[in-house]
Design brief:
The chain has 816 residues and is α+β, with helices and mostly antiparallel strands. It has 3 domains: 211 residues, Nucleoside Triphosphate Pyrophosphohydrolase, CATH 3.90.79; 152 residues, no CATH class; 274 residues, no CATH class. 39% of the residues lie in helices and 22% in strands. The chain contains 27 helices and 25 strands. Strands 1, 2, 3, 4, 5, 6, 7, 8, 9 and 10 form a 10-stranded mixed beta sheet that branches. The longest helix has 35 residues. It starts with 29 loop residues before the first strand and ends in a 5-residue tail after the last helix.
């Protein structure tokens, strides 16, 4: 999302470059902050009604604030944000581009979310006395941002950012906070960030505020802009909710006398409103009408939430459908209005899914052609699935007298499997895919999530229900098509929370069956196709291990303290020696040789094949349209231990060399290969000598039948997550081979090499990469790709709040 220059008030900008008193860039003095606005969900409104809030007194918009801990601002409420880093600035140090990068980074780091709209609120300057840094001048750029109703913010590193928790404030509470400098939430008094407090009397009541000097004009105008924008947002949401409410009421026309006349009067009044005060007045009048029931309003709020969510359902099929099942989760019945709303999803994934559910009804013999002409009453039609009974279920229900419910249609698991396979165009038996889905979810839960969920939440161990894992396909359908009077659910799940979880997990499993099918087909096809051309080439280039090339690696560790003050052993180097060490631990390496133009390389080779689980995970994380885009089913790693000249002398491995080749890109957003070769072009690649040596051998040996794609030099690799190990050094590229039948094979290649700016060995970089992969596997799952992270897509925050409150800091120890 670009920040358009015209949207930032020019009166708040004195230059196109970020300023400081010393006329040079000081990253610690330049800050970006965003006031977050979010529509309340139907569930939040429902909780307020239970607390006794009247319909007429409801607010539908909230502002999300951070309650701070730490020495400087403990107990104060502040917007999301942080310092502008040097990496945020472009070469020209254009302030707008820098701000755009900064706000995106801070939003991801502090909330885990992406905004759906962003506009400037103004600029603020203030100075304060820092407890350790002394006098600090802050130059703050303030923004207004909006997030989706069902998104739940949580920080990636609350300790680093000094977070206690997020606080939601409605319009009335925000007005109180800005006017009095404090607000009471759930019986706890919280203060406004001291740099926003302008009233001298209030400032004396806030610790540290008296030491803060504020430029009042920019601060006042920024806060006014925020308050006005929140008021406008509240008015817009109220109007939208009322519009949905009127459409719901019209469906009750036969039950309520003179209803249409009353609705038209209200609609006419709303066409003339010009501000929030007028909207509120009419809203309160409507809410005091005897026609209005809480359930009607909650349904209208749900529709409005859904409309907002659907606008931004722009991810892959997997991500859209996984989010869809949680967005609609709160509603007992999916009305025609809901279906009309979700049909507007831009890529049509949901519409396609619902059409297949209609076909499933027909395939199971529950509906005829006339009933399937449109989406009308689809939910009530789907509930007929509850009338189906399996043969074994009938035996249980028959009892001693042998009586059977004659209205129930008898169906076998085989028939359900055939119906699902036909309707969803599956390549595999859905029962087999269900087992794959169970394994996939269990591996994530048991190996990655459960060990790190804080036990105090009380749900650890219950993030995967055995009842769903063992359920038949028919039971999955029955559970997923929600029926509040479902006796089967009440019998198997005692609490409403467990029933909610069961419904969600059943829906998730059905979606995964559909998603996994195409991924599994691609995975199986690529494994079956094999990597013969690459194996053949490497077998010619790389010789088998010999005793002559045996060497030994000795790992060196140092004891260091982590951020928590705990002592850890850290790998600091791996030394390669020719002679077997006489003491200490070491590893014997049966190295191989590769002939190159000016000598030979001594290498250690590792080959791996991506598992189905890993392939599914990558497909979902990257949001791929087609699993065929995955190009690293096969991976080969080379650890360059030494380079030897023809006369047996050791050669330099850190000399930089260049090579012009025909190359191209693997683009995960389009296709892994380009059939027309339009992306293949001449390019010069530069890296240390062993990398260039190996690529030369590939091209010469294959006679250019194998292409090198997406080359990334060894000095550009690092862990991508915040705080990750920055010392990874390996070249990475893909090989592509197209045979005479047009079949495409790809292989990922990694080459670990020493670096000119380091004395570390290639083996050290290889071993660090293994440690990095193991330690940060789950961490990468929390990275926000697209709208949401992998964990949020698989474990909806609405169902598993403990999972999505676990941060990278909770289950990873970042090493410097």
């Amino acid at each position: 999302m670009e920040i358009i220059r015209s949207k930032f008030p020019e009166r708040f900008l004195s230059a196109n470059k970020i300023e400081s008193k010393e006329q040079e860039y000081r990253p610690e003095t330049n800050v970006v902050r965003a006031f977050l606005l979010q529509e309340k969900t139907g569930e939040e409104i429902k909780k307020e009604l239970k607390k006794g809030v009247l319909l007429k007194d409801l607010y539908f918009t909230k502002s999300v604030w951070i309650l701070k801990t730490g020495k400087e601002n403990s107990g104060q409420l502040m917007p999301v944000g942080g310092k502008i880093e040097s990496s945020d600035l472009t070469d020209s140090e254009d302030v707008f581009e820098g701000l755009d990068k900064a706000i995106k980074r801070e939003m991801l780091h502090e909330t885990h979310l992406r905004v759906v709209s962003l506009e400037a609120a103004g600029r603020q300057n203030y100075s304060f006395e820092h407890s350790s840094r002394g006098q600090v001048d802050n130059n703050v750029f303030l923004f207004l941002a909006r997030i989706l109703p069902n998104d739940i913010p949580y920080p990636l590193d609350p300790e680093e950012d000094k977070f206690e928790r997020f606080i939601n404030l409605d319009l009335n509470q925000v007005a109180e906070l800005l006017y009095f400098g404090k607000v009471v939430v759930d019986g706890i008094e919280m203060k406004l960030l001291d740099s926003f407090i302008l009233d001298d009397e209030i400032r004396t009541q806030v610790a540290g505020a008296s030491k803060t000097k504020i430029e009042e004009n920019g601060t006042t105008q920024s806060l006014m802009r925020f308050a006005n924008q929140m008021s406008a947002q509240e008015g817009r949401v109220k109007l939208n909710v009322l519009e949905k409410l009127f459409s719901i009421l019209r469906l009750k026309e036969n039950l309520i006398p003179n209803l249409e006349e009353k609705i038209k009067t209200w609609e006419q009044s709303l066409t003339t409103v010009k501000d929030l005060v007028a909207v509120n007045r009419i809203y309160q009048e409507i809410m005091e009408s005897e026609f209005i029931k809480p359930d009607y309003l909650l349904e209208a709020v749900g529709l409005n939430n859904l409309e907002e969510e659907v606008k931004y359902m722009d991810d892959s099929k997997a991500k859209v459908l996984l989010h869809f099942i949680s967005v609609l989760f709160m509603d007992k019945e999916w009305t025609d209005q809901y279906f009309e709303m979700v049909k507007k999803e831009k890529n049509g994934y949901i519409k396609n899914f619902l059409e297949r559910m209609q076909k499933l009804l027909k395939r199971l013999g529950l509906e005829n052609d006339q009933d399937l002409s449109d989406f009308n009453n689809l939910h009530r039609q789907l509930l007929k699935i509850h009338s189906l009974k399996e043969n074994n279920e009938l035996l249980k229900d028959s009892g001693e007298d042998g009586e059977i419910d004659r209205e129930s249609k008898i169906i076998s698991e085989e028939e359900v499997a055939e119906a699902l396979k036909e309707v969803f165009d599956l390549h595999y038996d859905p029962r087999e895919l269900a087992q794959d889905a169970d394994k996939f979810i269990k591996n994530i839960a048991e190996k990655s999530l459960l060990p790190h969920v804080d036990q105090r939440h009380g749900t650890a161990g219950k993030i995967l229900l055995d009842e769903i894992s063992s359920a038949s396909l028919l039971d999955l359908l029955k559970i997923s098509i929600y029926n509040p009077d479902n006796d089967w659910l009440k019998k198997h799940f005692s609490s409403s929370e467990l029933r909610r979880q069961a419904i969600y997990e059943a829906r998730r499993k059905l979606i995964l069956i559909w998603i996994i099918d195409s991924v599994k087909q691609t995975h199986v096809e690529k494994i079956k196709l094999g990597d013969g051309p690459f194996d053949k080439m490497w077998n010619q280039l790389v010789k088998e291990p010999t005793e002559e090339n045996v060497c030994y690696c000795v790992k060196k560790y140092e004891k260091r303290q982590n951020k928590k003050g705990q002592t850890e052993e850290i790998l600091v180097d791996v030394e390669i020696v020719d002679e077997e060490p006489k003491e200490g631990s070491f590893e014997k390496i049966a190295a191989r040789t590769m002939e190159v133009e000016d000598g030979k390389l001594i290498v250690e080779v590792h080959k791996s094949v991506k598992t189905l689980d890993s392939t599914i995970r990558k497909h979902i994380i990257l949001g791929l349209k087609d699993p065929k885009e995955i190009s690293d089913i096969y991976r080969r790693s080379f650890v360059v231990l030494d380079k030897i000249s023809p006369d047996g002398q050791k050669m330099s491995m850190t000399e930089m060399q260049s090579l012009e080749i025909e190359t191209g890109q693997i683009n995960y957003r389009t296709n892994s290969t380009d059939q027309n070769n339009s992306s293949i072009k001449k390019a010069t690649i530069t890296d240390v000598a062993p990398v260039i040596d190996i690529i030369k051998q590939i091209l010469q040996n294959s006679q250019n039948k194998i292409k090198v794609l997406s080359f990334r030099p060894s000095n550009k690799m690092s862990t991508f997550g915040p705080g990750g190990n920055k010392n990874l050094r390996f070249a990475k590229f893909y090989l592509e081979h197209v045979d005479e039948l047009g079949q495409i094979r790809t292989e990922e290649v990694q080459i670990f090499v020493p670096q000119p700016d380091s004395e570390k060995s290639a083996k050290y970089y290889h071993d660090i990469k293994i440690i990095d992969d193991a330690e940060y596997e789950l961490s990468r799952l929390t990275d926000t790709r697209g709208r949401r992270s992998f964990v949020s897509n698989l474990y909806s925050p609405l169902i598993y709040p403990p999972i999505t409150s676990v941060t990278k800091n909770s289950f990873n120890k970042r090493r410097g």
